[in-house]
Amino acid sequence: MDKPETHGGQILVDALKAQGVNRVFCVPGESFLSALDGLYQSGIDTVVARQEGGASMMAEAHGKLTGRPGVAFVTRGPGATNAASGVHVAFQDSTPMILFIGQVASDQKDREAFQEVDYRAMYGPLAKWVAEIDRLDRIPEYVSHAFHVAQNGRPGPVVLALPEDMLSGRGVAMPVGRATLASGQASSDDIAQITARLKAAERPLVLIGGGGWTGEAAQAIAEFARIAQIPVAASFRCQDFMSNDHPNYAGDVGIGINPKLAERVRNADVLCVLGPRLGEMTTSGYKLVSVPQPTQSLIHIYPDPDELGRVYRPELAVCARPNAVALQLRDAAQDAQADRVDLVRQVRAEYEAWQEPEETPGDLKMERVVKHLAAVLPEDAILTNGAGNYSAWLHRYFRYRNWRTQLAPTSGSMGYGLPAAIAAKLQAPEKEVICLAGDGCFQMVMQEFGTAAQYGANVIVLIADNGMYGTIRMHQQKHYPKRPSGTQLVNPDFAAIARAYGSFGALVETNEAFESALAEARAANAPAIIHMKTAPKALSPKLLLED
Predict the structure, then answer these.
(1) Helix (H, G, I), strand (E, B) or coil at 116
(2) Which residues contact 387 (CB under 8 A, 6 or more apart)?
(3) Burial, 25: exposed, middle or buried (Cβ in 10 Å; 0-12, 13-18, 19+)?
(4) Beta bridge partners of 252
(5) What is the DSSP letter of 233?
(6) Range(s) for CATH 3.40.50.970 in the chain?
(7) Helices marked H in 445-508 — which ranges?
């Protein structure tokens, strides 16, 4: 231990560099000044967001894209509470992430000091592990453990609190090398049982999704499906796990599911679930699969043993990481009986028919917008979105052709699209990044457009403006017809906001104007906002307001 003494903030940054961290997201605060000093000239790209919720969502999106924990720093109290939104996304989406929070000095604890919060109590239900580092010499140990917890088993967020005096104290501590992850493989007997049950099935369906996947695993499951002749569906907002052009791709099992695909799920004799939890969104409110005893023969493969059997009783439960099992299934794939070729063709035809646009009212139609995006964008373009009815057109009509080209919160968090798009563009500046947002969704985070402008993250934001919180208005019309309450929005000129930042902005009200504006935005070499005026009565691809 011949290293010179340094402050805890530098020891923390050295520990992050040892884990391979090259970018962090933050909103600065006086509670972690030493960590900010450690980041100075560290070689770690420090992205300063406008609000902690944006910073934490950027870190979550970074974790989704890279498979490595996204890292965010926020200050104590209000900063920590703001950041909770991104941590919740990471937890429900099974994304590796680490949130560092400044904390009051240790000699002021439990006095309700300025902005003091008990983070173990606050974040306990939202994170895989919450801890407070009370000794400078243990910083590398805590950081190493955090990276192991965030990535092993079911990936998820970790929260570490940093007392101010611990960070500013001086000492010596050696960093610990990169986290060593468990292989997560299934046993050979498990793989043999899975392949045998699928081979013998007449109406099998594989459902893929969840966290812990890789591009190699996505290719492997596509190859397995081709050899075994099995239709494959993607769980909610996991549509980029398999090329939507693949002949075995059946569509997405989530909100607004194709009714024919819903029937395929219900009537499958063997349902092999590789990665998803089988939560509310993926099961249409726990109706596609009966609770607790499914009518299908359920094979559930999941990396957390506590989830297996939690809601549904599987006939075969396998505790393993989906990326590892996908590779094992590919290597063990067996040719299927000839009549399964017809099954795959039928399921694919149903998906193709569902892709045909249904016309909705208005001069600017979301189905035309999304179909145009699918036609002109390169296959590696990344699309992001938050929550709202506008996303239903994207889910239904866009075809994702490459791994990690869809960034969307399975937690249903509004405001996610813009921070995610910024993180994506910073990580992959060579790719086109398009954010779709509703007028309500965008206004929850629109200050982060300033972050995009500051860092030259040339994202294109498409804002569907129907003057209301459309999803809630839809539910109101269903339960309390013609009694709108609390859902109307009076919106600004969003395009003018972009121009105020020296960026590209356009207001469009027709399909033709949108296509022209998109071409200009793609050529602008600047962040862009296209403000799309849409018809309020076009609530979804299939529902009108009066319906």
Answers:
(1) coil
(2) 409, 412, 413, 414, 416, 441, 471
(3) buried
(4) 234
(5) E
(6) 6-171, 366-533
(7) 449-455, 470-479, 494-500
State which fold the 6-171 domain adopts: Rossmann fold (3.40.50)
Residue 366 corresponds to which amino acid?
A: M
Return the amino acid letter for 400.
Y
In words, the CATH class of domain 188-355 is: alpha beta
Please give the Cα distance from 223 to 220 (Å, whole number): 5
Structure token pair of residue 95: 């994304």
* 95, 63 contact by CB (below 8 A): yes
Q: Is the distance from CB of 442 to CB of 461 less than 8 angstroms?
A: yes
Say how far apart CA 123 and CA 141 lie, in whole Å.
21
What does the pLDDT look like over 82-103, one tens digit per residue?
999 999 999 999 999 999 999 9
Three-state DSSP state, 432? coil
Q: Is the pTM of this model over 0.90?
A: yes
3-state SS class at 367:
helix
Backbone phi, then psi, for 302, in 5-degree steps?
A: -150, 145
Q: Which two tokens stand for residue 357?
A: 């646009």
The topology under which CATH files domain 366-533 is Rossmann fold (3.40.50)
115-to-72, 81, 105, 119, 204 alpha-carbon distances in Å = 19, 11, 11, 11, 55
Q: How much is the pLDDT for 547?
A: 64
Six-digit token string for 542: 């299939």
pLDDT in tens, 475-498: 777 788 888 887 787 899 999 999
